[in-house]
Amino acid sequence: DNAFAEPGWGLGWSWDDFAFGYGAPVGALQYNENQVELLIGPGLEPGSRAVISVSPPGSGLTLDYQVVTVAAGAESRISLERVPGTTVLTVRGHVAAGATPIRETAAVPNPTVFYLNALREALSRHGIVVGGRAIDIDDAATVPELSKATLLLEDRSASLFEIVDVTNKWSRNLYAETLLRSLSPAGEPATAEAGLKVLTETLRTWGVSTDYYLARDGSGLSRYDYLTPDALIGVLTYTWLNPALADNFRSSLPVSGVSGSLAQRLKGTPAEARVWAKTGSMSQVRSLSGYVVTAEGEPLVFSFIVNGFRVPAREIDAAIDQALIRLVAFQHPSLLP
After folding, report:
1. By C-alpha distance, which of 119, 118, 113, 158 is closest to 134?
2. In the chain, how many domains are there?
3. How do residues 295-323 score in pLDDT, each as one tens digit?
4. Helix, strand or coil for residue 306?
5. How far apart are CA 237 and CA 303, in angstroms?
6. Which residues form the domain of 123?
7. Chain Cα centroid distance, residue 325
8. Does one domain contain both 140 and 46?
């Protein structure tokens, strides 16, 4: 549990992100990505209370449930709120009668307790009786002498490539934050700060100066992060030109019209299956950075970052997509007749 230092949230995260699965805290013990799924469906008739289920069990959350059923055909809308340091998750909104249930993810308040509850339930299913309740070791009255413990089981994680593949294709903030802390030097507390020092030094050797970025977390959820297209172009160019990184890194990125967070973008256009890129999305921010291969087969590196817009985000995405379609048609002067 204490392999990672607390707190589990990134510096500069917005407190109203804490309720959602994408804002789940990091912990050295992690289960189900430190989140639960809420399935919220309509009641029997308008005015009745909507129906909710939470899975898996053992989250430690207490629901304050304020969702009602409204007339068929109306818009369904749900909001989540949890004050940091509490376990009460307030669910508000309305679901239209006859509508398909809404799926939402909620972060658990204590990943360690969530993990232990799941472990105890799994042991119980296999006939192993566990007494007492699951607690975080930080809350224990006495701490056992772990140096005398006997190792019963060891399990290796997926490969780094597999973890990065999921992180990039599906924008898993928890994975990114975990990887950042895992960069901490051996023998030192695993913290975001220690990981950021390693990250900064690595990028320096790649030719990416801190003049072009300021990182405060691993996922980009922090409002204290500052990033320029120059920094991203530097990273993307270095990885493309480095044989040890190029293939694995590019294959981890979503592909336009094919996979990950780009699966539904650029379908049926000249840019379909020609763009490998990572999305970046939060309130008033839309970005896309990666590689595009032109119709002539020439690879190009690109980075779009749009901030502070006053139009729907889908219009920003559409403008970026149009720019990529034009890049696909780009012909290098040396290739022109």
Report:
1. 113
2. 2
3. 999 999 999 999 999 999 999 999 999 99
4. strand
5. 11
6. 31-155
7. 28
8. yes
